[in-house]
């Protein structure tokens, strides 16, 4: 049986890099240049240049597993601590599409799903798991005890080594640092994927507290 996966706000595909098995991945990315880079790395995936938020509403029922990594700057604790309100670092409304998508899938999607975002400067409106200095919301258990925090990476060499994507041929058309910083580490993507499908799971009926 082929597992149909929807990879939203796909970027260059850090979360998807180590997934394997009988999978069919549809990736949605709004930036055509980034979508082209994703397609270069994953030629077997179906890549759609579109608004991921709108695409989800229309197509969520077509998939077995959905991963969504909505834009994070408006939620970021690090951005807020850096001095919001000065220079170009303007105050932003928190982008609430994150919570809209969580609520939608929680109530209407029959498959497995996970959302990834940064640790927020405010108390999350829906309680997340914390794994490797990120928030995750999911309808399966994410074991935070496996967390091995790498901290906040700053140097380009460290970013390149950690994210393990060779973007050298694209450097004239992209902001490499920004693209790598926004890229999920592949081993994190694999760990979450394994928690959903390959590891023994505790169901929410058995879980002794309400997470969502």
Word description of this protein:
This protein has 212 residues and is an alpha/beta fold. The protein has one domain (3-152, 186-197): 3-Layer(aba) Sandwich (Rossmann fold). It has seven helices and seven strands. The protein has a seven-stranded mixed β-sheet. Strand 2 (23-29), helix 1 (32-41) and strand 3 form a beta-alpha-beta unit. The longest helix is centred in the middle third of the chain and has 12 residues, at 97-108. It starts with a strand and ends in a 15-residue tail after the last helix. The model is unreliable at 202-212 (pLDDT under 50).
Question: What are the key terms here?
Answer:
disordered C terminus, 7 helices, about 210 residues, Rossmann fold, alpha/beta, seven-stranded mixed sheet
CATH superfamily: Vaccinia Virus protein VP39
Nearest-angstrom radius of gyration?
A: 17 Å
Number of domains: 1
Average pLDDT: 86
Classify the beta-strand content into a percent band.
Answer: 15-25%
Structural class: alpha/beta
CATH architecture: 3-Layer(aba) Sandwich
Give the uncertain stretches in residue-range form: 202-212
Q: Assign an overall shape.
A: globular
SSE blueprint:
Blueprint (H helix, E strand, L loop, with lengths): L2 E6 L14 E7 L2 H10 L4 E4 L2 H8 L5 E4 L8 H5 L15 H12 L3 E7 L10 E3 L2 E5 L17 H8 L12 H6 L4 H12 L15
Parallel strand pairs: 1-2, 1-4, 2-3, 4-5
Antiparallel strand pairs: 5-7, 6-7
Describe, in short, the structure shown.
With 212 residues, the chain is an alpha/beta fold. The chain has helices at 32-41, 52-59, 77-81, 97-108, 156-163, 176-181, 186-197, and strands at residues 3-8, 23-29, 46-49, 65-68, 112-118, 129-131, 134-138.
């Amino acid at each position: 049986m082929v597992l149909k996966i929807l990879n939203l706000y796909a970027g260059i595909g850090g979360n998807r890099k180590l997934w394997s098995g009988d999978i069919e991945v549809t990736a949605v990315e709004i930036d055509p240049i980034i979508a082209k880079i994703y397609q270069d790395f994953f030629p077997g995936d179906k890549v759609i240049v579109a608004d991921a938020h709108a695409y989800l509403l229309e197509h969520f029922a077509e998939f077995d597993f959905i991963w969504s990594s909505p834009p994070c700057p408006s939620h970021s604790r690090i951005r807020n601590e850096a001095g919001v309100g000065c220079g170009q670092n303007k105050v932003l409304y928190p982008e609430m599409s994150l919570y809209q998508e969580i609520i939608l899938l929680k109530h209407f999607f029959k498959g497995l799903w996970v959302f990834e975002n940064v640790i927020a400067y405010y108390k999350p409106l829906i309680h997340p798991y914390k794994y490797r200095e990120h928030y995750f919301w999911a309808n399966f258990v994410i074991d935070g005890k496996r967390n091995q925090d790498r901290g906040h990476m700053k140097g380009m060499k460290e970013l390149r080594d950690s994210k393990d994507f060779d973007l050298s041929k694209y450097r004239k058309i992209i902001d490499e640092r920004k693209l790598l910083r926004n890229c999920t580490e592949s081993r994190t993507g694999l760990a979450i994927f394994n928690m959903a499908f390959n590891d023994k799971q505790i169901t929410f009926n058995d879980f002794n507290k309400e997470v969502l």
